[in-house]
């Protein structure tokens, strides 16, 4: 019965990764791109916790997850900074404008 | 416990899809915070209490604040957004893609009788986590410090006033 729940968690995680990657592929808005990355990273974080739960090594998984969360925050903050700079330069956050940047 | 996990999983999936699909960025950021909160509850129920606290305070709190700050600092006209990005049209196929992927995954699980192994009983939590985090994985902490400093320096460089 327990293994059934874990398989469901796995499937939901894969669906979240698909949603995040679809957003990455389809949107042009830089903030939406970051939101897509965040959604996919939520699923990855859940997988790490699930692995720790299955192996009975939740403490080790938590140590990894805290590292993942720190990296997630730094990526989000740097990307938002980039988006704001893009807005200051072009008046919108369209990633197609990044192609115009030089040096 | 299992029923709560299933409910949280469902809500997390819905919030995740909403975060990606909603046209309003503010609503997207709030939906992302909702997905983080649901993940925090799942973490708590799966025995990862400290990670759940981090997820709730940092991902559901801090990242949402960062997004909302960015949205309020950039005041693109609401009328221009659909014309500029065409997000509603471009993201319209996502539910169909997710349904197809879900059906494929369920079929694979059903046909191959794939099941993850059942969980083994967890070892003692609090002390072991402290021991692992501060002693065994000490290098990770230094890595985290370096990543945070790098992020801070990058933000400083990004917002440096032009001479």
Can I get a quick summary?
The complex is a heterodimer of chains A (103) and B (163). Chain A has helices spanning 2-26, 30-55, 58-90.
Q: In terms of topology, how is this protein built?
A:
The complex is a heterodimer of chains A (103) and B (163).
Chain A: H1 2-26, H2 30-55, H3 58-90
Helix pairs in contact in A: 1-2, 2-3
Chain B: H1 2-21, H2 25-45, H3 49-73, H4 80-85, H5 87-90, H6 94-112, H7 126-136, H8 138-158
Helix pairs in contact in B: 1-2, 2-3, 7-8
Task: Name a few traits of the molecule.
heterodimer; A: 103 residues; mainly alpha; Helix Hairpins; 3 helices; B: 163 residues; Four Helix Bundle (Hemerythrin (Met), subunit A); 8 helices; 78% helix
Q: What is the share of helical residues of chain B?
A: over 70%
Shape of chain B: flat
Proper CATH architecture of chain A:
Orthogonal Bundle
Percent range of helical residues of chain A: over 70%
Indicate the mean pLDDT of chain A. 88
Oligomer: heterodimer
Shape of chain A: elongated
What is the CATH fold-level name of the largest domain in chain B?
Answer: Four Helix Bundle (Hemerythrin (Met), subunit A)
């Amino acid at each position: 019965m327990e293994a059934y729940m874990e398989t469901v968690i796995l499937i939901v995680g894969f669906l979240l990764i698909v949603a995040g990657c679809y957003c990455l592929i389809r949107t042009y808005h830089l903030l939406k791109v970051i939101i897509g990355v965040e959604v996919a990273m939520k699923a990855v974080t859940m997988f790490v916790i699930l692995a720790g739960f299955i192996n009975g090594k939740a403490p080790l998984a938590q140590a990894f997850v805290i590292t993942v969360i720190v990296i997630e925050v730094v990526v989000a903050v740097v990307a938002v900074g980039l988006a704001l700079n893009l807005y200051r330069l072009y008046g919108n956050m369209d990633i197609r404008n990044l192609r115009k940047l030089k040096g | 416990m299992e029923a709560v996990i299933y409910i949280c999983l469902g809500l997390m999936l819905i919030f995740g899809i909403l975060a990606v699909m909603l046209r309003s960025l503010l609503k997207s950021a709030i939906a992302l915070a909702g997905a983080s909160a649901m993940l925090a509850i799942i973490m708590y129920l799966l025995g990862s209490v400290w990670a759940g606290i981090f997820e709730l305070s940092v991902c559901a709190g801090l990242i949402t604040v960062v997004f909302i700050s960015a949205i309020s600092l950039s005041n693109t006209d609401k009328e221009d957004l659909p014309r500029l990005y065409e997000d509603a049209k471009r993201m319209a196929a996502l539910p169909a893609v997710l349904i197809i992927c879900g059906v494929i995954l369920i079929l694979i699980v059903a046909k191959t009788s794939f099941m993850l192994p059942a969980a083994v009983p967890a070892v003692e939590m609090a002390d072991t986590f402290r021991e692992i985090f501060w002693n065994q994985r000490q290098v990770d902490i230094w890595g985290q410090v370096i990543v945070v400093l790098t992020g801070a320096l990058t933000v400083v460089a990004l917002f440096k006033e032009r001479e």
